[in-house]
């Protein structure tokens, strides 16, 4: 996963631009029906699939992946191993290689100099943990930011909160000089690459992004919990690596916009989507003295008056700068075009024009990566084993099942985007759905995001999987998900490999599970996301891996086998109305007036067409008319293509879905009706007006595909 899912957003906002990102009220309705049936009733094929999941073999796959160097460009061995497992399980497997632009760390250091001339080095190295074998390996990967610029800068520094556009604008309002300074920003909220972009856009010459224990809730060393490896709290020296690509502008290989990175492909200048200033990540132990040096200098946290400004370290989180206190940040990177390997496996169905793609990335920032993404990688090996049990029993899928193990996701969804660009015609002709699993497990709480037509099948199948407590409480993961997620299905923004599919108009879903308040702290993108952590704290016994894997397998099975595709187009109309109501509220709270009647009319046309399609489905089933069922299935497969708006969103043509997209300044969290909403948010009323028409047209195109 490119980004941590932790997006805490509470309290007041200081600026109207935060309304969208930080407000939580929505007209979307949670799914609240309780699961009454116990124990779950499974069909014979479902039973075979669910019983194939074995925590002992999942543990074996997790151990394998947890001891390989899988950094993009270094991951061929794990690719070949993955291909061999899928081949053993009856899939027709090949490696799809692309030659992509990547960057690697060469040399880095940070030091602070005080007005009296004293200089102190700041630690940028993660510790060796005696109990955790992979942390001491010679090929352990240093802390760095993918695609960061090379540079060696010395300057006074300021604290800029989370580094959002609104944070920087607040500093400008307060008269803080950012030009020529180094910006210290805490992780969380928006994607890290956008923090660096915002610092750069405001004239900063370097950036440091640190982890703050204020994001760890109750489970902190300050609250008396022991740190890893002795307890569940974050290790004070854990560092979050990660990419600093400008993700909300364009994912994929930065040098091949819109076309696949084959060897010898022409290369574009990447400078519009990668930073021009150097940056490094820091642990909370390392950053604390730097924050303390700012105490009493510049505006205080109270004067800044922004949500999530002060964190939990022993400092007052003043902005600074502290006169004469300087930071020297040296970061030297090497850019190279390197081969990366997607593993692609086919189990072809009897209907060659209908395809389900199930994907997970394989690359990591560290030797381990047992949450991100080895938990998902282990699940996909076990899933292939389950499908082999079913084919051994005589089953053939109706639709093609394609498994994908993506490379270079961490740098910016590179492997999946290049593959989608390479096969976009076949994909848009045949693909019914893309199912993504990235971090299958970083904690015990299941979370689901999906395009609206997959909400019903997704949550219905939750009821068929026994919750990982072994059913001791007679609970399915539907019940545990109700408790943990309140019945809310997320809207797809970005941050994982579904992005290339969504913005090609393909139904998509993302499944995983993470931690919440009180759960052990997962050290996202740190060398301490390891097999040892997972088997000790994250998922001892690998039961959560098993449950999430059973769910994904049942979902793949139903989409590949059900005679009528379990695609709920009527729910798309329900969601569109809720997004529209959210938009109306947003416009009402802004300084603008905008007529969205055309949008409302298009949604009602869509609703009517969806009802008619459903009626046609019922008729086809009643008559048992195979040809008519096929017609309905193809409408369900294709209607999403209508939502794609050629030319894409303003200044970011990759993002073409008119209904949802990652926010320009979130990179992660989704914005609905992005063209309209961001037009209002960033004072571009003409764009907003233009996108009322474009979104309405897109909805009418989708409605037209459903027309009976
Ligand atoms: C902080 O911001 C809020 C919301 O904009 C405002 O109501 C409040 O008066 C501000 N407080 C101070 C101390 O400026
Ligand atoms: C970085 O700059 C410092 C002085 O600011 C210098 O001592 C050091 O040699 C430089 N490092 C590189 C790799 O240029
Ligand atoms: C499966 O389908 C794909 C895509 O149409 C095709 O390239 C491949 O050759 C097929 N494999 C088999 C074994 O038929
Ligand atoms: C769980 O369900 C079983 C039947 O499957 C029943 O015998 C048992 O009493 C139930 N346990 C609890 C705690 O409800
Ligand atoms: C698998 O589950 C069993 C209990 O069902 C447990 O005893 C065993 O330790 C687990 N194995 C692993 C490798 O986690």
From TrEMBL:
Tell me which residues make up the PA domain: 159-230
- Which positions, given as ranges, span the membrane? none
The lineage's top-level taxon is: Eukaryota
Transferrin receptor-like dimerisation domain segment(s): 595-707
Q: Which Gene3D superfamilies match?
A: 3.50.30.30, Transferrin receptor-like, dimerisation domain, Zn peptidases
* One Gene Ontology molecular-function label: carboxypeptidase activity
- Write out the ranges of the annotated region (Disordered): 249-271
SUPFAM superfamilies attached to this UniProt entry: PA domain, Transferrin receptor-like dimerisation domain, Zn-dependent exopeptidases
Q: Where is the Peptidase M28 domain?
A: 342-532
Per the record, the similarity remark reads:
Belongs to the peptidase M28 family. M28B subfamily.
Q: What is this protein called?
A: Membrane protein
Species source reads Stachybotrys elegans
């Amino acid at each position: 996963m490119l980004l941590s899912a932790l997006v805490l957003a509470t309290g007041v906002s200081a600026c109207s631009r935060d309304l969208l990102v930080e407000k939580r009220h929505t007209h979307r309705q949670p799914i609240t029906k309780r699961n009454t049936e116990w124990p779950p009733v499974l069909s014979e094929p479902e039973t075979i699939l669910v019983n194939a999941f074995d925590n002992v073999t999942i543990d074996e796959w997790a151990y394998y992946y947890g001891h390989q160097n899988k950094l993009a460009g270094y991951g061929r061995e794990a690719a070949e191993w993955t291909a061999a497992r899928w081949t053993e399980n009856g899939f027709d497997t090949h490696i799809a290689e692309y030659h992509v632009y990547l960057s690697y760390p060469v040399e880095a250091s940070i030091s602070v100099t005080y007005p009296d001339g004293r200089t102190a080095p700041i630690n940028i190295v993660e510790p060796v943990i005696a109990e955790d074998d992979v942390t001491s390996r010679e090929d352990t990967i240093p802390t760095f930011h993918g695609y960061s610029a090379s540079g060696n800068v010395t300057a006074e520094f300021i604290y800029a909160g989370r580094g959002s556009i609104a944070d920087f604008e607040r500093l400008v309002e307060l008269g803080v000089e950012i030009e020529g300074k180094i910006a210290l920003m805490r992780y969380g909220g928006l994607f890290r690459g956008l923090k660096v972009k915002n610092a750069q856009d405001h004239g900063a010459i370097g950036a440091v992004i640190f982890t703050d224990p204020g994001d760890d809730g109750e489970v902190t060393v300050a609250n008396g919990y022991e740190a890893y490896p002795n307890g569940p709290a974050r290790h004070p020296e854990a560092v979050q690596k990660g990419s600093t690509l400008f993700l909300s502008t364009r994912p994929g290989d930065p040098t091949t916009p819109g076309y696949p990175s084959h060897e010898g492909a022409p290369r574009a200048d990447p400078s519009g989507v990668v930073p021009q200033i150097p940056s490094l990540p820091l642990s909370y132990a390392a950053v604390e003295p730097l924050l303390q040096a700012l105490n009493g200098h510049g505006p205080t946290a109270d004067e800044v008056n922004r949500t999530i400004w002060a964190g939990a370290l022993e400092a007052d989180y003043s902005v600074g700068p502290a006169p004469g206190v300087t930071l020297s940040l040296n970061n030297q990177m090497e850019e190279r075009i390197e081969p990366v390997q997607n593993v692609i496996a086919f189990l072809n169905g009897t209907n060659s024009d209908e395809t389900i793609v199930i994907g997970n990335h394989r690359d990591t920032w560290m030797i381990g990566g047992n949450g991100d993404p080895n938990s998902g990688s282990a699940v996909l090996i076990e899933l292939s084993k389950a499908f082999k049990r079913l084919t051994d029993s005589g089953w053939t899928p109706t639709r093609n099942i394609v498994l994908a193990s993506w490379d270079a996701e961490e740098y910016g969804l590179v492997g999946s985007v290049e593959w989608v660009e390479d096969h976009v015609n076949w994909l848009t002709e045949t693909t019914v759905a893309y199912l993504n699993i990235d971090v299958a497990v970083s904690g015990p709480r299941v979370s689901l995001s999906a395009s609206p037509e997959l909400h019903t099948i997704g949550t219905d199948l939750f009821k068929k999987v026994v919750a990982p407590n072994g059913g001791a409480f007679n609970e399915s993961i539907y019940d545990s998900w109700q408790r943990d997620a309140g019945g809310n299905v997320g809207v797809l923004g970005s941050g994982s490999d579904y992005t290339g599919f969504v913005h090609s108009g393909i139904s998509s879903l993302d499944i995983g599970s993470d931690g919440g308040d009180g759960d052990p702290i997962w050290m996202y993108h740190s060398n301490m996301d390891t097999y040892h952590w997972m088997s000790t704290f994250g998922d001892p016994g690998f039961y959560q891996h098993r449950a999430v894997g059973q769910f994904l397998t049942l979902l793949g099975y139903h989409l590949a086998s059900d005679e009528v595709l379990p695609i709920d187009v009527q729910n798309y109309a329900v969601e569109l109305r809720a997004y529209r109501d959210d938009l109306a509220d947003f416009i009402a709270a802004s300084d603008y007036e905008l007529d969205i009647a055309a949008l409302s009319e298009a949604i009602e046309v869509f609703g009517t067409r969806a009802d008619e399609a459903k009626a046609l489905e019922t008729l086809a089933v009643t008559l048992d008319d195979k040809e008519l069922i096929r017609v309905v299935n193809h409408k369900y497969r294709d209607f999403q293509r209508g939502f794609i708006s050629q030319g894409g969103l303003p200044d970011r043509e990759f993002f073409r879905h008119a209904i949802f997209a990652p926010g320009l300044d979130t990179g992660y969290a989704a914005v609905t009706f992005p063209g309209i909403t961001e037009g209002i948010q960033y004072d571009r009323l003409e764009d907003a007006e233009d996108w009322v028409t474009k979104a309405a047209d897109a909805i009418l195109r989708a409605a037209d595909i459903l027309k009976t």
